[in-house]
Task: inverse folding
C-alpha cells in the first residue's frame, strides 16, 4: 500500500490494470454525442470502526468499497452511471448510459489525451493513518474513556464511545485530459454519556477528529477533553429547566454553534440553488445580507480539518471563498457545472459522498471571522436572553430561507449573567436577515472539534464550521415556556 | 445471479469456519437502479447504477466483528474473511452476542409479492416522460408557479441473499418505484416550495403523474404569504406525513437498541398507557407488496403483524436477538440489517390505525390552532421525549384554514403529546413504510414573534 501514499494517481491504473489510453477511449465514448464535458471518478475506500458500550469494546467493523462513476455534461444536463465493478467493459457501458442525456449525434469529437496532472494542495500528508494503529491500541483508548467518564460523576450511568477511521483514494480524470488524485484520511472519536438522577435521565455528546494521525488524540489529551465535555453536558442537563418560548436576544458561544452559518446562509449560497433561482439569496450578490460586523468565509484549505480537501471531487483544488464581507454578499460556492453555466470560476466546492453520487456544490469549512468584543462583554450586554453553547443538528428550507438548529446545551442570561441551564430547544430564523441582527462579534473565533456531517439531496459529506461568540438581537427560541 | 449468490454465501461461511469462526452469517445485496430528473421540461440528470456487496458477521465464541466488501472475487474474499475473523478475536467478548436461537428460523417463506417482475427497471424514456408529466401538471396549475426544483422518477430492483452457519438460508427480490415533484410558487411575498410524491413496489399502483404535480403545486401555493405569529399555546393538527414522523419517533423509542442503552423515554413502560385510548399502532412485516415487507428479518427470523400500541397501551418492544437477550425478552422479527453493519432494530410497515373523523372535521373542531404541513430540524430528544421543531402550515380560525404561517416552532414532550391525541382521521394512505392519518394534539407551545 506504500505506493498509493506516494502517487494515488498510479494506484487505480495498476489496481485495475488500466492504461491512460484506455481512459482516453472511455472518455471518448462518453463524449460521442454532443456533450460539453465528461469525467471519470475512481474511488477505493477502506474503513474501520470500533465501539464501546457497557464498558466493553464489543463492536468492530470493517469495510472495503470501490467503484467508478462516469459523468457526461451537456449544457445543464447530466448523465451519470456508476458501478462497483471496475472493468473496461463496465466503464464503457456506463459511458453509454451516461451519454444518453446528449441526444444529438455526429459531431466530431476532438480525441481525449489524458495525462496532465492537477497540482493539489498538501493539507494532510500523514506519516500514517489511524488504520495503521493496532486495533488493540484503539480499543484501549475507548476503555480509558469509559473509566474517565464514569469517574467524572456518580450519576454517569451509560457511556458509549466509538472511533471510526477511513482512508479514501480518489482519482478524477476529465475529458480535458487532466488527472487529479488524492489520498484522503479521515477519523472521528465520539463519546456519548447518559446521566441519571432518579427518573431524570439526560444525554451529553462530544467528539472530534479530522484528517489527522492517531497521535492527534493523544497529544494534548483530546480524548480526555471530549469525554469530560460529554459527561459535563449530561450532568448540566440534569438541572435544566424548561426553555423559554418566543423571540429574544441570543448569544451563541464559539465553535460548533457556527452551524448557524452553515444552515442560515451556507446552503443558500451554493451555486446550484442560485443558478436555478430557487434560493432565498438568489440575485443578492453585492447586497447587504448581514451587519457590518460579519465576514463569512468558506475555506477548504485549512490543514488537517475535517472539511478540507486537497482537490475537490471534480479535481479542482479547493480555495478560500469570501461569502460575506462586512455584511455584503460577495460570492457563491461553485462546482464546475454551475460555475460554467453562471459564467463564474469553480471554487473547489464540487463534492460527492462516493462514486455512487454525482458532485454538487457543497460547503467545506464555513466560519465567521473574529470581531473586537470580548466574550465577557457580549454576555454582560444582555439583560434577558439565551446563551447557547452546544447544538445538535440543523436544517434549512433553501427556497423561503427559514432555518432551524437545535441547542443541546443552553443557559438563561439574566442581568448580564449566565444563570440556569435550560432544556434543549430549536432556534428558528430567516437566513437572509438573521445576520443583519448580529450586534456584537467577539475576538474568540474557534473552529469546531471535527464532528460535522452535512446532508444534501441524500448525500453526506464531512464539513467544518466555526464562530466567535456573537450576539443576535431577536431570534425565535422554541421552548415550551410560553 | 441469485443462485450464484447463495453458493458464494455458503462458500464464505465455510471459509469463515476454516479461519476459526465458531459461527457466522453472510448477507449479499445486489441492486440496480435508474433515476431520471427533469427541470422546467428538460432533462436535469439521468443516473443508472449497478452494485453488489457482501457482508459477513463472524463470531469466535462471544466475540464478533462485522465487515463488508465490494471485492467479491474469491481470492480477495478469502483474505477479507480471514481479516474479519481476526478482528473478531480482537473484540471484547459480549455475553449477549450470537446468532438467534436456531429453532426460531422459519423453514418456509410467504410470497409477499415484493417484486414487479413485469416492469423491472423502467426505461429512461418512460421515466423521463413520467417526470415531465408530473412537473408539467404542477407548472400549468397556476401562473404563480414560476420555477421548479424539478420532478424525479426512480426505479430500483434488488436481490437479498442471507445465510448463516446454523443452516438458515433464504433470498428474495424486490422492486420499488417513486415519482415526486417540487414546484416553486412565487408572488410579491417571496418563494415557497411544494413537495409531493407517490411510491410503490408495483409500477401500475403509482398515483397518476398529473395528480402528483397538481398536489405539489397546491402545497406550494398555499404557503405563499406565510406570516409569523405570536407565541401562544394552542391545539396542533399534524397532517398525515407529519403525524407519521411522530409515529416514527415512538418506534425509535420502543426499539430494543435504545432501551438497553437507557436512551429512550419509553424505558420501563411496557404494558403501560403511553398514548390516549384511541391510539393503536400496528407493525406489520407481512403486508403483500408493503414497502417494508420482507419474508425474514435481518437475522433470518420471520416477520409478523403485531400491535405495538393497543388502545394506548405499549404492548411490545421492537427487538432483535441481541437487544432481546439484554432485556430478557424474545426477538420480535424487527432486526434491520445493512450489509456492513451488525443487526439493529427497525419497524416494518408501521401505521396508526385510522379513526372516524374526516380531516375537515378535525380542522373544524379547532377554534384557533395550527395545522402543520412541514417540519424541519432534529429537535427530538429520544432520551427525554423533549420535542421542539421548526414548523410551517396553516393557522386555523373558527374551524377554517385561515392563513399560512412560518418561522415558528412547536414544542412539547412526546410522552404528553401521545397521551393527548384527541382526534384521529380516517385518511390513512400507504405512501411510505411508516404512515399515519391526520391527528390532533390537544395543546402545544407555539413559539413565534
Result:
Amino acid at each position: 500500500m506504500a505506493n498509493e501514499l506516494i502517487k494515488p494517481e498510479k494506484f487505480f491504473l495498476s489496481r485495475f490494470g488500466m492504461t491512460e489510453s484506455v481512459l482516453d477511449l472511455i472518455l471518448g465514448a462518453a463524449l460521442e454525442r454532443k456533450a460539453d464535458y465528461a469525467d471519470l471518478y475512481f474511488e477505493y475506500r477502506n474503513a474501520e470502526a470500533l465501539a464501546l458500550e457497557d464498558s466493553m469494546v464489543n463492536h468492530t467493523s470493517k469495510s472495503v468499497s470501490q467503484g467508478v462513476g462516469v459523468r457526461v455534461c451537456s449544457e445543464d444536463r447530466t448523465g451519470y452511471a456508476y458501478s462497483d465493478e471496475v472493468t473496461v467493459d463496465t466503464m464503457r457501458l456506463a459511458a453509454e448510459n451516461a451519454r444518453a442525456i446528449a441526444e444529438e449525434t455526429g459531431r466530431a469529437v476532438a480525441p481525449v489525451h489524458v495525462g496532465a496532472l492537477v497540482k493539489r494542495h498538501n493539507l494532510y500528508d500523514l506519516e500514517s493513518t489511524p488504520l495503521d494503529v493496532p486495533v488493540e491500541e484503539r480499543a484501549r483508548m475507548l476503555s480509558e474513556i469509559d473509566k474517565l467518564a464514569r469517574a467524572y460523576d456518580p450519576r454517569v450511568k451509560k457511556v458509549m464511545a466509538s472511533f471510526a477511521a477511513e482512508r479514501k483514494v480518489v482519482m478524477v480524470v476529465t475529458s480535458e485530459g487532466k488527472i487529479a488524485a488524492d489520498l484522503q484520511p479521515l477519523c472521528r472519536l465520539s463519546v456519548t454519556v447518559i446521566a441519571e438522577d432518579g427518573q431524570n435521565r439526560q444525554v451529553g455528546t462530544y467528539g472530534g477528529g479530522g484528517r489527522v494521525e492517531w497521535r492527534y488524540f493523544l497529544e494534548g489529551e483530546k480524548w480526555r477533553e471530549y469525554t469530560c465535555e460529554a459527561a459535563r453536558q449530561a450532568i448540566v442537563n440534569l438541572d435544566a429547566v424548561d426553555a423559554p418560548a418566543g423571540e429574544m436576544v441570543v448569544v451563541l458561544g464559539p465553535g460548533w454553534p457556527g452551524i448557524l452559518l452553515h444552515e442560515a446562509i451556507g446552503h443558500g449560497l451554493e451555486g446550484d440553488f442560485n443558478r436555478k433561482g430557487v434560493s432565498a439569496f438568489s440575485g443578492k450578490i453585492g447586497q447587504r445580507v448581514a451587519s457590518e460586523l460579519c465576514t463569512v468565509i468558506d475555506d477548504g484549505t485549512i490543514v488537517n480539518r475535517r472539511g478540507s480537501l486537497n482537490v475537490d471531487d471534480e479535481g479542482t483544488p479547493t480555495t478560500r471563498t469570501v461569502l460575506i464581507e462586512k455584511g455584503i454578499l460577495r460570492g457563491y460556492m461553485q462546482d464546475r457545472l454551475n460555475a460554467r453555466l453562471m459564467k463564474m470560476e469553480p471554487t473547489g466546492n464540487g463534492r460527492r459522498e462516493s462514486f455512487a453520487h454525482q458532485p454538487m456544490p457543497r460547503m467545506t469549512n464555513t466560519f465567521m471571522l473574529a470581531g473586537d468584543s470580548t466574550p465577557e462583554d457580549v454576555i454582560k450586554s444582555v439583560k434577558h436572553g439565551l446563551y447557547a453553547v452546544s447544538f445538535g443538528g440543523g436544517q434549512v428550507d433553501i427556497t423561503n430561507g427559514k432555518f432551524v438548529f437545535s441547542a443541546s446545551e443552553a443557559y438563561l442570561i439574566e442581568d448580564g449573567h449566565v444563570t440556569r441551564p435550560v432544556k434543549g430547544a430549536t432556534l428558528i430564523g430567516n437566513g437572509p436577515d438573521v445576520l443583519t441582527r448580529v450586534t456584537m462579534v467577539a475576538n474568540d473565533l474557534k473552529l469546531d472539534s471535527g464532528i460535522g456531517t452535512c446532508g444534501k439531496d441524500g448525500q453526506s459529506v464531512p464539513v467544518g464550521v466555526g464562530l466567535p461568540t456573537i450576539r443576535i438581537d431577536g431570534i425565535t427560541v422554541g421552548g415550551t415556556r410560553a | 445471479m441469485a443462485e450464484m449468490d447463495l453458493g458464494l454465501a455458503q462458500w464464505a461461511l465455510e471459509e469463515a469456519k476454516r479461519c476459526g469462526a465458531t459461527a457466522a452469517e453472510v448477507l449479499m445485496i445486489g441492486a440496480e437502479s435508474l433515476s431520471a430528473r427533469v427541470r422546467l421540461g428538460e432533462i436535469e440528470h439521468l443516473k443508472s447504477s449497478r452494485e453488489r456487496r457482501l457482508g459477513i458477521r463472524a463470531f469466535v465464541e462471544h466475540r464478533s466483528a462485522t465487515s463488508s466488501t465490494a471485492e467479491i472475487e474469491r481470492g480477495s474474499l478469502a483474505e477479507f474473511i480471514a481479516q474479519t475473523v481476526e478482528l473478531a478475536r480482537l473484540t471484547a467478548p459480549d455475553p449477549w452476542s450470537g446468532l438467534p436461537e436456531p429453532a426460531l428460523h422459519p423453514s418456509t417463506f410467504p410470497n409477499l409479492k415484493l417484486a414487479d417482475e413485469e416492469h423491472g427497471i423502467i426505461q429512461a424514456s418512460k421515466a423521463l416522460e413520467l417526470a415531465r408529466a408530473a412537473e408539467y401538471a404542477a407548472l400549468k396549475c397556476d401562473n404563480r408557479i414560476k420555477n421548479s426544483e424539478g420532478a424525479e422518477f426512480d426505479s430500483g430492483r434488488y436481490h437479498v441473499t442471507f445465510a448463516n452457519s446454523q443452516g438458515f438460508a433464504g433470498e428474495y427480490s424486490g422492486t420499488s418505484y417513486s415519482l415526486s415533484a417540487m414546484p416553486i410558487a412565487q408572488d410579491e411575498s417571496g418563494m415557497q416550495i411544494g413537495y409531493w410524491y407517490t411510491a410503490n413496489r408495483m409500477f401500475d399502483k403509482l398515483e397518476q403523474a398529473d395528480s402528483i404535480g397538481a398536489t405539489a403545486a397546491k402545497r406550494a401555493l398555499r404557503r405563499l404569504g406565510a406570516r409569523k405569529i405570536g407565541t401562544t399555546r394552542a391545539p396542533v393538527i399534524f397532517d398525515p406525513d407529519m403525524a407519521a414522523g411522530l409515529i416514527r419517533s415512538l418506534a425509535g423509542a420502543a426499539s430494543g437498541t435504545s432501551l438497553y442503552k437507557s436512551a429512550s423515554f419509553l424505558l420501563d413502560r411496557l404494558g403501560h398507557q403511553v398514548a390516549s385510548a384511541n391510539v393503536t399502532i400496528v407493525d406489520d412485516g407481512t403486508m403483500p407488496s408493503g414497502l417494508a415487507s420482507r419474508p425474514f428479518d435481518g437475522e433470518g427470523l420471520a416477520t409478523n403483524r403485531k400491535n405495538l400500541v393497543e388502545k394506548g397501551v405499549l404492548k411490545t418492544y421492537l427487538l432483535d436477538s441481541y437487544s432481546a437477550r439484554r432485556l430478557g425478552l424474545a426477538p420480535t422479527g424487527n432486526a434491520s440489517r445493512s450489509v456492513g453493519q451488525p443487526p439493529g432494530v427497525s419497524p416494518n410497515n408501521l401505521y396508526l390505525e385510522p379513526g372516524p373523523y374526516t380531516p375537515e372535521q378535525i380542522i373544524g373542531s379547532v377554534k384557533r390552532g395550527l395545522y402543520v404541513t412541514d417540519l424541519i430540524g432534529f429537535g427530538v430528544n429520544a432520551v427525554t421525549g423533549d420535542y421542539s421543531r421548526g414548523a410551517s402550515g396553516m393557522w386555523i380560525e373558527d374551524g377554517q384554514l385561515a392563513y399560512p404561517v412560518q418561522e415558528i416552532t412547536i414544542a412539547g414532550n412526546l410522552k404528553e403529546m401521545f397521551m393527548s391525541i384527541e382526534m384521529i382521521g380516517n385518511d390513512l394512505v400507504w405512501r411510505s413504510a411508516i404512515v399515519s392519518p391526520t391527528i390532533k394534539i390537544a395543546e402545544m407551545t407555539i413559539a413565534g414573534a
